[in-house]
Structures are given as structure tokens and as C-alpha cells.
């Protein structure tokens, strides 16, 4: 909401600077976003009178003017054709600045000295809406509504000197979407009286009932409808002061009738509408629900289909306006309009909002109605409009106002409980002081009862009252009390594990990323998910920003692939990344989806291979205390390379997968190098991890080592041999380590040699050589039993 | 005989002095100590004492010479082992925490220190928790300011972390002291200052006798911990449907200390959070008796804190995850 300072001063006397005003209003709850003095970009532009005009000798369109700017007469060359002797115009002197920051200096035009520039409306930042008698493609010739004293600042002369303050008004305060409402807040803030204006209308005779009838068929949707009639309308531009104030509030002046409706809306916060009586069949205003399929062409020229959830203003035959939203095309004010009807009505908020939304036209009026306006404002607003009609001589006001009023006018009451307020806010403000604060904003306090003004629909509870007290007492005056008492703050096991995983991964050289939780469903194709994969069943956003962000991901892998791709295409030589984030698995519409936390790893770059990634995964397992897991080749996950991917399971459940990304997937993501992705299920780490550590006594007896090499099928996973050795050696096994894999002569084709270093130790004695040999014999026999022979 | 011994001593002394290697020294030792050993049985008692003296003297000299030679050898060896200590290391670089996590962890630590636990709630939420229980009924105009992604009529992507307030109060009886950080969603197109996904940190305190003075004191402590002891806070009245009174909270600009600078747009203050006293209706919705308990709640926008902290001028950088960006933290 933009406001004019000149306008506010009608209602409250303020003697502070613009900055003080902005600061104090902000602290009392009317937040000032910005304030600016109109025309502040202009400088050194004054009024000047054309004393003489003569054709430029070397130009067929330029004029040499002698311009009287008060203390001197200047020679200025202009190309404009709309000037005559005696005109008073804006003169940009030497070293002046016009709209847009353009600097004007003395110069010569076709050999003739020009000591400045004569200005158009545009050069002052104005349009013909601000001065309807002026033309836009010529010099602005000041009219009689301007101060024509020569040599004065142009801003003073034409009234381009208001302070515009922009307020952010919250949705609970529609009363502050008005000059009057903000003046009330300002008066209370600065402890000044509010100067209330009571509109007075003289009326010209005749009876409004002879022109108009009003009927409300749906009183639950329309609380009040006030109608008045003005005949012999004289449509013309409004006076300068009105145009000026509208402009300051960001509203374009049109003509006196339209301007009056806008002016009253801005002043009282009450939307107004004007109909041409010619198009109201039977002079009837019927407030009713639309019929399904009924049509209306609204003021913006668009034909709209209505339904029976929408309230309309209709005559005997047809809707002429969508109630509280927008008028119909033919009901507006035209040049030949003679008799008009003013509407000042109050409609239900939520349904007006729904109607506006359904028709896709949120208007200034609907934006106000949706916040629930005060039915009591209808009458003063229409009176003010009629007063202005008379004041502007815009027509003859027919006597009487039709007031179809279904509202109660009852003020809400709340018990006056100053102690409650003090206890709730943590202050000590006397009952008397609290009463004064409330009265300053038009609440009445009588016999320990608070009567809430009707325009404050937001005040429903003691807590609301306490806010009123607190904001005028001053939030800054509330003491700061540090929290007392003790509380038991502890990280949960999951939170501890997250920290541990993140620290481990960073120590392993991986950096953390953050990606969007929604993706394009196209990713499922790009990552080659089978058509019938469960993972294609996503939580779908019904109103997404676009296809790219339309489903909640069922896997974090595409997000990681995207980031790897972006880094690759940004020519980053390598990347090693991780994210702790959710995948979302739907469960129909009656149950919230599962949000599964996953640890997703991704990397590419020189020296990075499957085993690099495997090392990182093992580091996480080690940190989390995951033991006894099983790792097997995974050959049928279409996202991964069938020969370079593993699945890790624990207690029969999948714990992780990791591998090289399938070449076709790399291609789909435009990644030109091998990339590796791993994913660990956080819930598994949480369920099976064990970070409790207990000390085991250091060994007191020496270890015995043996190396063994076997020859086996080239495709046999070494883990299988390792496990058999482990089992065969039994308790005395301390560690087993693969140290060589060899393929080639003399090993037969299709076979490989694998060599292990085996360390054995007993806790209670020195192992005898025979014991170690015996254990080796058991291992060899076990392997021979499945056709794996000792390398000779 | 005596002269003979002294002669041996004199010669040996010179020879030992000039022995350059361990081998030379060993040879000298053998040679001269052997000569000493040739004393006859008759001579021994007579000049035994002198002989012993000279032997001990020679042995000391040998040991001393041996130390010198070894030290020299070691020095030569180390000289040969010299490396260029300025050559690059082969250390694997450490990974980096995401800037969002850096600041979030810091915020969490501050609140842990003030006795807050950390809770979480679902990102895909029921309309009831995101709106209705928070005193935002259907068709409330406040819904328009939070453009919501819907899944079904009743299921949505939470627009704020405030539903965590409801979930915490449903599960836990007062006293409550909790923060709930997490992702929130609003249908804002991506630009330098908007993202359809961002992070909030919700805070909730419910107990007997909680007042707005507690809110002020608590959030001032938070601001001082985050930005330094000299930080001040300023509360401005505002409106949120689920708190009453409500406020927006500014901190004195951590760049200029409140004098006014480009970062605070000359204001001296930077808005970092919103909050207020939990609306009695909200307490009631969660089965907490507003006549017995009161509370305050607040919400912090994490991205804002992060962008101010690291001087990041474009929110998109946070979600693009270019390693050249990530490596800076």
C-alpha cells in the first residue's frame, strides 16, 4: 500500500521527518518498506514564461525562445511545435537533471546558443494521466491548476512534491489498506488526535427509489449493499489535488467518476463500483448466485462463464458484475453516460477469494474483500463519494441512499484483563495505561469490557488484545529475559550417526552437496529404470512449476548424476561428492509417503575407480561399526555397469549398492568419463551400526604368518575364497589379506592365481608351527573340495 | 719397559687420531692392545699399573674416535638422503561441508547449548498440520502468500517447518524446548533470491509462565552467539496466523555494526527471523491447555543466514553444487 503524505495530513497532524515517520510506524506494526519524495531525481528545473518565439534561421522545425525564469531571461532552442508566447513551461536550466537522470547543460544547437531545455511531461516523469490537458509529444504547458510564479521549483509549481510511503500491510489488517486506517495507526503511534471527517451531502432532490431497487438474495454472501444515484453526470478530468494523491498511491487518474471510486477506496479501504444506469434493466440490483453456464463479459473485455458458486450483481435479466471482483463490460462509465449508480457493498471474504481465483482475476477489490471488510464502512464511504461528486461538480446527487443491510453492527466484546496481558507479555503496564492505548485505536473499554471496533475483525482473543498493548507500549520496551531452568538437550542416535557419516566422508575427500527433492520423471528413462519398475511410482505434484520439478524423487541417484554432469560440463577435472537426503516412496492418498534417508556417493576423475568408491563405502561401514556384511556382484541393475557393480547386504537386507555407471546412462547424462555411484541406506546403518567401543586386551603372544596362493576360475569372487579360508582357519585367524592376483602363463587361460597373506594368533599361548600348518591344511582341503587348487 | 709403553701410547695416539674408518680403527685397536699384552710375568707387577692406565687411556680414545667416525658417517648418509621439502605432498584433499550444513550445524550447536533438542517432521505433510492446526483455515488469505505445491487436496509439500510445532506438541507434554530444521517448499521460480526449495529452522518453547520477554531474551542470546556479543536485536510487530503477538526480528548489521552499509541497505538492521507467542488456539489444537501453558515460536530462514555469512549473492549457487564453489568452504 502506497500512501500520500499530503493525504495522511488531512487526518493527523504530523511534525516528524519522513524517516522518523517510517521508523516509528514500522516499530508500531505498520511496516514501511520504503519511502521517497516525488520528483527527487529532478534538479534545477524551474517555471519559465515564453516571452518570444522565432524560427531558427538554420532549421525548418526549431524555435529560438526567450524565456523569462524570474530573475533573468534566457535564450533556449526547442524543437517543440506546441508553444506560443505567454506559455508557462518547465525550464531545465544549465546543470539540471531531468527524469531518468539525464543531465542538461548549456550548449549550441545549429550554431545558436541554448541555455537549457524546455521539458515535456515525460522529462518530469509524468504522463497525460497526471495532466490531462497537456500533450505528451510536446512541451508541458502549465495550466491554471499550477502555480505560475516564474522561477520557482517546478515540483512546487505542479505539486510533484508529495512523500510516498510504501507500507507492507499484513493480511489480518485490511483496515490499514486505507489512508484512514494508517492515519489512525499514525495518530496512536505519535499520540496525536485523529481528525475524523464526517462527509456531508446536500442531495439535489428526486428520490433514489424512483431510480433504483436493491435486493440481496444471499445474505450469507453479501452482508450489506448501499446504492446511490447520480444523474446528469459530467465526466471530465478530476482536479489536480485528486490526481496528485491518486498518482502518489500508484493509481492512474482516469476521469472524475472513476477517480472518485478509487479515491474513496484508498481513503476508506472500501471498494466502490459505479454502474451506468442505462444498462441496469429495470433499475434493479439483485445480489444473487450465478446460474451455471451464465456468461458475463467483464470490464477487461474477456467473456467468462460463471457457475452457481459465484455471487453476481444482476439486473432483472443478466449479471452486470461479479460481486466484489469486477464489473461487466457495459456497466462501466462511458463518455455519454448520464446517470450512474454507486455501489458500496460488503461481500463474504473466502467465497469472494474463491470466485476471483476460479475466474483467474484477482483484483484490487477482491484482494480487499477476501480479507473480510467491515460492513459498517459501506455507508460512510458512499457518503464520501457523493460528497466528492458534489465537490467536483461531477453530477447531481439524487436524494437518498438505498441501504440493504443484513449485518449485525454488533461490536465483539472481550473481558478487559490487564493482568493477563502483563503476564502474557512479561511487562507491567497499568490498567489505565492499557485502556488509553486501546482507546487510541478506537477500542472502547467500559466496566471491564473491551468493545472491539467493527473494522478490527482480527481481534478475537486476549492474545490479540495483548498484541495491541505490546506494540504501542513498544516491543523495544519489553524486557529481555534469558530462558531459565534446565532442559535435557541431547542428540538422537540418528543425529549422531549423520554427523559421523558426514565427517567420515569428508575425511575420505568427498564434499557435501544439496539437491532439489523433486525431479523430472524423464530421469527414470535417463537412468534406464525398467518400464515396470516400482521406482517409477512417484509422489506427483499436482501443480508443479514445470515438468523438471514435477515428481518427488524415488531415488537420489538421478540428482547425483545431474550434479556430476554439471561439474563435468563445467570442465571440473574431478569431483567426489555425497549427499545425505531423502527419497520419497508413495503409499496412496490416505497415508503419508515414506521419506527414506539415503547416503548417496558420486565421483569421477583421474585415479578414481570402483575400488576408490568401495574404499569410501568401507570407511563409512567402519565408522558406523557395520560388520558381517555380504558383498556380491550385481549384474542386472540397468543404471550400472553389469560387470562392475556390487550389492552389499546385511542380515538378508540390502545395505548398499555401488558401482560404475552404465555407459548408456553416462551418455544420457552427458558425462564423458567413467563415473561411480554408491548408495547406502541410512536406516540400515542406524539399525545395524554399533559405535559403542570396548577395549580388548593387546596380544601378549606372537603371531604366525603364512602366505598361500590358489588357482581358480577367473570369474570367481575372491571374497568367496577369503570366506572359506576364514572359516577353515577358525578362531586363531587374526587377519587375511589378498596381496596378489595374477593372470597369464603359466596359469592356464580362464584361470587366475590369487595369493593371500594369513596371520594367526592365539590369545593365551604362542602358536606352534604345527598348529598353523594344520590350519593351512584345513583351508587348502576346503578349497580343493570345490575345485580350487593350491598354486604349485 | 716403561719407555716402551709410553712409546706405544704415543704412536697409538697418532694412529688413532688419523683412523678414518671403522675398519682402520678396529685394526689399530687389535695392533696396539696386542702389543700391550706382551708384558712378561716379571714385568707385570712392576709396571702393571702403568700398563693398565695406558690401556684404559687407549680404549677411551678408541671409543671416542669411534663415536666421531659414526657421527660423520651418519651425517654423510643423511646428506645423501636430502629431499626437496617444497615439493607438493600427495595428501588426499579433505572434502568440504556444504555451506548450508556449516551454518545449520552452528545454529544447532547454539541451541543445544541453550537446552533445545532437535526434532524433525515429514516434508510431505497433511494440509491439517501445515495450515489448519496452525490457525490457517481453508480459503484464508494467508495461504496465498505461501504458494503451495499440492499432492492431493489434503496432502502437500510443507511450506514451512511450523507443522513440526504441532507434531512436537502432539507427542510431547510441556516443558518443550525444541528446534526443527528442514526443507520447505513454495512454488517460487528459481532466481538469485528465490528457490522452490529452501530451509527453515523452527523453534518452539512451551512451559508455564513463558512470556514475550523470554522470546526476546532467548533470541537475543542466539543472535549474540551467532554474530558476537555486541549484537543487538530489534522486534517489529508483524502477523503470523499461528502466533499472537507476532514479530519479525532484526539483528544489528553484522557487517557495519548498525551504522548502515550496502549489506543492510543503509538500515543498520538485517531481518533474520520471525516469531511470536504461540497462539492459544494453536496450543488448544494440540491438546495443550492455554490457561496453564504459554509458549513462543520462531522460524529462521537458513539460506538467508548462509548468504549473509559467506557473502553469496545468488541462491542458485547453493543448489548447483559446482566443486569450485563447494571447495571454498
Question: Can you walk through the features of this model?
Answer:
The complex is a heterodimer of chains A (792) and B (329). In chain A, 26% of the residues lie in helices and 28% in strands. Chain A is α+β, with helices and mostly antiparallel strands and 792 residues long. Chain A has 6 domains: 2-38 and 163-189, Phenylalanyl-tRNA Synthetase, Chain B, domain 1 (2-Layer Sandwich); 43-158, Nucleic acid-binding proteins (OB fold (Dihydrolipoamide Acetyltransferase, E2P), Beta Barrel); 208-405, Phenylalanyl-trna Synthetase, Chain B, domain 3 (Phenylalanyl-tRNA Synthetase, Chain B, domain 3, 3-Layer(bba) Sandwich); 412-477, Phenylalanyl-tRNA Synthetase, Chain B, domain 1; 493-688, BirA Bifunctional Protein, domain 2; 704-790, Alpha-Beta Plaits, CATH 3.30.70. Chain A has a 7-stranded mixed beta sheet, with helices on both faces. In chain A, strands 3, 4, 5, 6, 7 and 10 form a 6-stranded antiparallel beta sheet that branches. In chain A, α5 (240-248) crosses α6 (256-268), α10 crosses α12 (462-473) and α13 packs antiparallel against α16 (610-624). The longest helix of chain A has 17 residues, at 769-785. Chain A is elongated. Chain B is of the alpha+beta class and 329 residues long. Chain B has 2 domains: 2-80; 99-326, Bira Bifunctional Protein, Domain 2 (BirA Bifunctional Protein, domain 2), CATH 3.30.930. In chain B, the strands form 2 sheets. A 7-stranded mixed beta sheet of chain B has the order 1-4-5-9-8-7-6, with helices on both faces. In chain B, β6 (233-240) and β7 (243-252) form a beta hairpin. The model of chain B has no long low-confidence stretch (mean pLDDT 89). Classes of the chains: A alpha+beta (792), B alpha+beta (329). Chains A and B meet through α7, α10, α12, α13 and β27 of A and α4, β1, β2, β4 and β5 of B.
